[in-house]
Amino acid sequence: MTQQDDQLLAEMARRNWIILIVLLLFSLLWQSFPVTMGVLAGGVLVIINYRWMGRSLFKLLGDPHLAAEKGFKRNYLFRLLFIAGSIYLLLVRGGVHPLALVVGLSVVVINLIITTAKRLY
Fold first, then answer.
1. In the chain, how long is the greatest CA-to-CA distance?
2. Which of 4, 18, 90, 101 maximizes the CB count within 10 A of its CB?
């Protein structure tokens, strides 16, 4: 990877947190604890997942042998189970608002749209 790619990834990581803070501030308008916690939990969960996926891809691309590929697939399945279990627990036991959780989970998608728009224009 080039230095420009590293800068882009660092900028995107920083922007994820900025977008999450902006969404949290908007969620405060509802004055509802479940809404704010849904946005926060979803945002943190998706940022953790994004970082985890990035690390897995760097490992795979750094060592593209068969063992690394199997490790990536195993890690992918574990990460999927972790995220699904976390979302289930947040909705069933956590008492977060489902739509707020979806808004929080869209932090990385919003970031990708912003990054794409910046690079196109």
1. 52
2. 101
From the list 83, 119, 111, the residue with the least C-alpha distance to 22 is 111
Q: Which residues neighbour 12 within 8 Å (Cβ) at sequence distance 6 or greater?
A: 111, 115
C-beta of residue 12 within 8 angstroms of C-beta of residue 71: no
Q: What is the pTM of this model?
A: 0.90
Per-residue model confidence (pLDDT) at position 63: 82
Give long-range contacts, CB 8 A cutoff, 24+ apart: 86-91. 86/45, 87/45, 90/38, 90/41, 90/42, 90/45
CA distances, 88 to each of 46, 51, 52, 81 (Å): 14, 21, 19, 10
Span between the terminal Cα atoms of the chain, in Å: 23
43 Cβ neighbours under 8 A, 6+ residues apart: 16, 19, 20, 23, 24, 104, 105, 107
Amino acid identity for residue 17 in this structure: W
Residue 88 to residue 45: CA distance in whole angstroms: 12
